[in-house]
Amino acid sequence: MLDDRAAALMLRIDSETSNPDWKNLMRRSLGETRNYASLMSRAGFIEAARDAGVLAPAIRAITCEASLDSALRDIGFPAVLKADGSWGGDGIVIVHDRDEALAAYMNLSNPPSRLRSVARAMRRNDGHFLLDAVNMPRPTISLQAFIAGIPATSAFACWEGDVLAANHLEAVATQGATGPASVLRRIDNEQMDQAAARMAACFGLSGLHGLDYVKDARGNMHLIEINPRAPQATYLSFGPAHDLAAALVSKIAEHRVIERPRIGSDTVALFPQEWSRDPMSPWLKAAYHDVPWDDPALIRAWVQSKAGAVFRGLPETPESVAFQNRIRQT
After folding, report:
1. What three-state secondary structure class fits 262?
2. Residue 263: pLDDT above 60?
3. Contact 237, 176 (CB under 8 A)
4. What confidence score (pLDDT) does residue 55 get?
5. Which CATH number fits domain 150-253: 3.30.1330.50, 3.90.1150.10, 3.20.20.70, 3.30.470.20?
6. How far apart are CA 153 and CA 183, in angstroms?
7. Do residues 170 and 213 make contact, with C-beta atoms less than 8 angstroms apart?
8. Three-class SS of residue 77?
9. Cα(325)–Cα(329) distance, rounded to whole angstroms?
10. The model's pTM
11. Average pLDDT over the chain, rounded to whole?
12. Can you spell out the DSSP letters for 275-292?
């Protein structure tokens, strides 16, 4: 699974069905689904991580204004308010005083109006928001201690609670203060190895998952949340023991699958995120740019959605012209 919405929908089906084939599919895809209620809770997951000995910032579930004030007294400022069920930087607000915290809490905890949900559905061509207009879900909110530092992430393949392979990456560039990374660099990190192993074992995970961290000034990695699905860069091979797809298929098929060739760099400019962030970014040339050349329909759809603004601002260098021509020919 490649997004949080799909994970939530599959878990909802799993909770409502007794079909043994479905139950078996879910166990093979995700692991012990009975543990996911805690895993999908931002506060519940971090509390489990801290209990397992993983370095993670303090967190509190917020249910009302009084519990917000209590949590703020314990955690202090700055702090981060987060809504369960959000992703991609949405539903996250960094607050610096009580007034900001209360305003953010009221905004995050109240469901969007029906009119706003209908407008989102039309603007984004996404019927999911029509369901929000009908159900008007009220998200669960948590308050987490703020850690200053560099964002980092892990992508790992696991089976029945054991990690098979992992790639750890630091963010080189991000889309805003709380948004996802657009340039990543692979690193080796023992803390991240241990965190992935302990979380996989704690929740009995199978399949592909991700963990997000902040690296502080001393180099310590603070676990801040889990991505219960295949995260960014899962599909990339960084060489022996760092090809997640090959490791997982080898385990399921019960015979060794030959690992794919290593990509050309440990630094990856994600497509189209980095191009959208800065069309003149030096990382588009210096890093491995993961344009999906084998999926021309996807590239065409992206170019068409940008309606002529795709190449605006790009410098007229030979490399830029060649890249633009290859995109147009796709």
Report:
1. coil
2. yes
3. no
4. 98
5. 3.30.470.20
6. 12
7. no
8. coil
9. 6
10. 0.84
11. 85
12. HHH-TT-THHHHSEE---
